Amino acid sequence: MLKEVERWLSTRSWSVTDRPLHQLMAAKRTTGSTVSVVLPALNEEETVGEIVAIIRHDLMQQVPLVDEIVVVDSGSTDRTSEVAAAAGARVVHRDEILPRIPTVPGKGEVLWRSLLVTSGDIVCFIDADLKEFSSDFVSGIVGPLLTEPGVDLVKAMYDRPLGQAAGQGGRVTELMARPLLNMHWPQLAGFVQPLGGEYAARRSLLEQLPFPVGYGVELGMLVDALHLVGLDALAQVDVGVRKHRHQDGQALGRMAAAIYRTAQLRLARGHMIRPSLTQFERGEDGFEPRTHSVDTEERPPMSEITEYVKRRAA
C-alpha cells in the first residue's frame, strides 16, 4: 500500500461514534449548511418505508439534521411510491425530472437527475433496499462534511454479511472493483466499500462530475472526484453492518461488466469494439445465450445543464 494511502487511512477514516449528533447540529448551525437525503428506488416497497420513517424520526423530528428526504422512483411496478410518500418522503418520478432529455434505465441516471429536485448543500445518497436500517448511515457520512471544511465526499464503510457468512457480501467489489482500483488508481486502495451505495458529498462537487447512467456510477464518481479534488478531500466512515437484498450471479456479472467499462473509459477514453456481455442459461435444448448491452452512456456534469444553472441562479 502506498505511504500516502496509509496516511490517508489514519486521517480520513472515522467511526460514526467520532461525531455525536450534538456536535453535528452545532456544526450545521455554524456553517448554515442544508442536507438532502436521496433514495433511488425501483420496486422497494418492502424496505423503503421503514428507511424513510427512521430518517424522519431520528434526524428530522428528534434533531433537525436532515432538511429533506426525496425518493426518486425509477419506474417501480409495485407500491414503492405510495409507501415512501406515506412514510413522509417527497416522491418524484424519474421521468418527471428534466423531461427534455429522455430517460434511460440505471441507478446513475436517477442520482444525476436527483440534483435537479433537491436543494441541500450536502446531498446524501442511501440505497432503498437496506434492511435493519439505522440512521447512523446518514449521520455518519454527513458528519465529516459538516465538521471538516476540506472534505468533499464521504463513503460509508461496513461489514456486508452474505447469508450467515460474515464479510462475504460485496462480491463485485472484491472480484472487480478492488483489483481495478489497486492496479490503476492505487490512491483509492484504502476505501473499504468503494461500490457502496451510501455516500454523501457537497453539491458543489457533485454538479461538476459526469454520472455514468448505470452500475458504474459509484466507481466513476470516486475516480473522477480523486482527479478533481484530490485524495484528502475524500473520506470514509464506519457505520457498522449493511444488510440488503442480494442479487444473483448473472446480475452481478452485468454489474461487473458495467464497472469495467466505466473504468476503461476513464483509463483511455477509448473505443470498445463490443460493449456487451453474453451470459448463459440452461433451457430445454441446453445452454442458451443471453446477451446484454453494457452501460456506456454518461450524463454530463449538472453544471452544464441549462435548467440546473437557471434553478441555482434563481
Automatic annotation (TrEMBL):
<keyword id="KW-0460">Magnesium</keyword>
<keyword id="KW-0328">Glycosyltransferase</keyword>
<protein>
    <recommendedName>
        <fullName>Glucosyl-3-phosphoglycerate synthase</fullName>
        <ecNumber>2.4.1.266</ecNumber>
    </recommendedName>
</protein>
<dbReference type="InterPro" id="IPR029044">
    <property type="entry name" value="Nucleotide-diphossugar_trans"/>
</dbReference>
<feature type="domain" description="Glycosyltransferase 2-like">
    <location>
        <begin position="36"/>
        <end position="147"/>
    </location>
</feature>
<comment type="similarity">
    <text>Belongs to the glycosyltransferase 2 family.</text>
</comment>
<dbReference type="InterPro" id="IPR050256">
    <property type="entry name" value="Glycosyltransferase_2"/>
</dbReference>
<feature type="region of interest" description="Disordered">
    <location>
        <begin position="283"/>
        <end position="307"/>
    </location>
</feature>
<dbReference type="InterPro" id="IPR001173">
    <property type="entry name" value="Glyco_trans_2-like"/>
</dbReference>
<dbReference type="GO" id="GO:0016757">
    <property type="term" value="F:glycosyltransferase activity"/>
</dbReference>
<dbReference type="Pfam" id="PF00535">
    <property type="entry name" value="Glycos_transf_2"/>
</dbReference>
<keyword id="KW-0808">Transferase</keyword>
